[in-house]
Amino acid sequence: MSGKSGSGKGKTPGAAKKGGGSLRSLGGTRPMNVRLKTARKRTPSSQRWLERQLNDPYVVAAKQSGYRSRAAFKLTEIDDKYHFLKPGMRVIDLGAAPGGWSQVAAERVKAADGRGQVVAIDYLAFDSIPGVEIIQLDFMDDSAPDKLKSLLRDGRADVVLSDMAAPTTGHARTDHIRIMGLAEAAIAFAVEVLEPGGAFLCKVFQGGTERELLDLLKKSFAIVRHIKPPASRADSVELYVLATGFK
């Protein structure tokens, strides 16, 4: 399986404008009602996806703020509530492409100013981001953990982020097993690299094994939460698990 971001593949050059952490802060972006004429070569599913993108206020807001994906708002909403990204921290972003989470992390830890550090990895190539060191490599490659640690100051991290998702098969059970496997690999890495008191944020899917994942995290972290940020679509089965206070 390949660890890749589930936040889309679009690329928007440039860094995001600071202070764009919510729709409210972006001038009250309103949802539109765009309907497309069905193209001859477009399937019904791709038609629905494209219309949803065009009518999604988070997609519009991401373009306005300079973020590379709407997923950036998921991280800003979670961090606005729980405050685990602070200036000077070292952050690893697993499955980073196209870079939305890395942009937010770099802003909040002041990586471009040299105070904090963000190291991002994905098997997909994506444009550079100020203050972010990028590795183009599958996180599931055996060499990935050591390469990530070699770039970190003192070889340790304060926060590990994972928005990884395996390519979907269309079979719900198989897709769930795949993403939970990525989550477990991310947890194992986080436990290896985090400093005491560190935090771990990871995407998971609802499907019956979230409790097992929570039990695993509770062995190593003081507080573990399931979170569904407003930017996560209501009809999506994705959840985020936030573990803080690494022991």
Task: Give keywords.
247 residues; alpha/beta; seven-stranded mixed beta sheet; two-stranded antiparallel ribbon; 7 helices; 9 strands; 33% helix; 22% strand; globular; disordered N terminus
List the helices and strands and how they pair.
Elements (H helix, E strand, L loop, with lengths): L3 E2 L38 H11 L2 H9 L5 H12 L7 E5 L5 H10 L7 E6 L9 E5 L7 H8 L5 E6 L1 E2 L6 H22 E12 L4 H9 L2 E7 L10 E9 L1
Parallel strand pairs: 2-3, 2-5, 3-4, 5-7
Antiparallel strand pairs: 1-6, 7-9, 8-9
Helix pairs in contact: 3-4
In a nutshell, what does this entry contain?
This protein has 247 residues and is α/β, with parallel strands linked by helices.
Give an account of the 3D structure.
By secondary structure, the protein is an alpha/beta fold. The chain has seven helices and nine strands. It has helices at about 45-55, 55-65, 70-80, 100-110, 145-150, 170-195, 210-220; strands at about 5, 90-95, 115-120, 130-135, 155-160, 165, 195-205, 220-225, 240-245. The longest helix is centred in the C-terminal third of the chain and has 22 residues, at about 170-195. The chain is globular. Mean pLDDT is about 80; it is low at about 1-20 and about 25-30.
Q: What is the number of strand segments?
A: 9
> End-to-end span in angstroms?
30 Å
SSE topology string: EHHHEHEEHEEHEHEE
Helix content percent band: 25-40%
Task: Count up the helices.
Answer: 7
What Rg is obtained from the alpha carbons, in whole angstroms? 18 Å
The largest beta-sheet arranges its strands as 4-3-2-5-7-9-8
Major beta sheet summary: 7 strands, mixed
- What overall form do the CA principal axes indicate? globular
Strand content: 15-25%
Q: Find the structural class using helix and strand composition.
A: alpha/beta
Low-confidence stretches: 1-20, 24-31
